[in-house]
Amino acid sequence: MKKVAVIGFGFMGVVHAKNIIASESMELCGIIDNRNGDIFAGIESTGNAGKLDLPLEKLKNTAVFKSLEDCLVQDRPDAVVICVPLFLHYKLAKEALDAGLNILLEKPFCSTIDECQSLIDLAEQQDKTLMVAHCVRFAPEWQFLAECIKDQRYGELKLLTTSRIGGEPTWGVWQNDKVKQSCGGSLLDLVIHDLDFSNSCLGYPENIKVNMHEEEYWEIALEYPKTDATISIKGGFLYRHSTFESTCAATFAEGSLRFSSLEPGIIHLGTDAGPEMVNVSGDGYINELEYFIHCLETEEEPTTCSALSALETIKLCQTVNSKQ
User: Are 271 and 292 found together in one domain?
Assistant: First the structure.
């Protein structure tokens, strides 16, 4: 069993801590958060996923530290999951790597390409695992789609269109305008998920076009060198408290599929055989954590979601941002 500490106890820190507690391969050995006051106050209602079913007693019995240094003095973890605002990613990831720890770093990777590359180089020097948490790659519906693209069970991909929208966050760092501006807005918080998924399946686009950018809403067209498929990525923040929804539709030479986060676990297929529903199960956040721990136990590189591929996604977001 691997000891894991969570750095940053906002929405994603809470989600990861919950899943670590539920895992048979991990032990939550610490929560690191330097805020004053009760860090457990209001955690059940944070985030865009509705009320969280949390193991509150176990969470509150977990040791809380103000810094990674304090944690290391009492109980050295095998790995840390870093869930802090983007402007702190590089600093805290470097501190963890310098301390000889493995890292699962919440997306997006870092603010700059140089910071991303520096962490990749440092992880290699320290012989430690550095994985960036792009959870969509591990979500069952998206994994099914990725397999269809790869094995062409319905023929060649012709169209992929995604939409990811929700109300502007009202929790955590998003309540601080200065910090909010440093986090990259909806492009790096929401739209990056689908840009990253598209890259993970198709490579890196040779042509990028921003068809619409209105405040925090984006419509982006991508062309990839190894396919003639039309790729359309849409999404962003709507007015606060708007219901979150992620949708995807893909057309192949011999069929189509679509799914929505409002109908979890169900994929709608259409082929010559008629309509069909495919049921899938699992949780992307749990799958992601378990894969990370598997890589630590087997000493394998996290090829399913490598830090280098996460760097490529940051490059794509920077290019998109430059074209607005």
Answer: no
The amino acid sitting at 312 is E
CATH of residue 66's domain is 3.40.50.720
Q: H or E stretch including 271?
A: strand 266-271
Strand, helix or coil for residue 61: coil
Distance CA 256, CA 26 (A): 39
Give residue-wise pLDDT tens across range 213-266.
999 999 999 999 999 999 999 999 999 999 999 999 999 999 999 999 999 999
Structural domain containing residue 205: 140-281
Instruction: Give dist(CA 135, CA 158) in Å, integer.
Output: 25
- pLDDT value of position 178: 73
Residues 6+ apart with CB under 8 A from 36: none
Top pLDDT among 217 and 39 is at 217
Q: What total of structural domains would you count in the chain?
A: 2
Q: Are residues 175 and 113 in the same domain?
A: no
Q: What is the 3-state secondary structure (H, E, C) of 99-126?
A: CCCEEEEECCCCCCHHHHHHHHHHHHHH
Same domain, 300 and 202: no
Angstrom distance (rounded) from CA 297 to CA 270 = 40
Q: Is the pLDDT of residue 61 over 80?
A: yes
* 129-133, 176-180, 296-300, 318-322: segment of lowest average pLDDT: 176-180
Q: How far apart are CA 190 and CA 236, in angstroms?
A: 6
Size (the chain), residues: 324
Helix (H) or strand (E) holding 290: helix 284-298
CA torsion 11→13→18→22, rounded to 10°? 140
Strands 2-7 and 26-32, sheet pairing = parallel
Tokens of 176: 């601080």
Say how many Å lie between the first and final Cα of the chain, rounded: 47
In this structure, which amino acid lies at residue 307? A
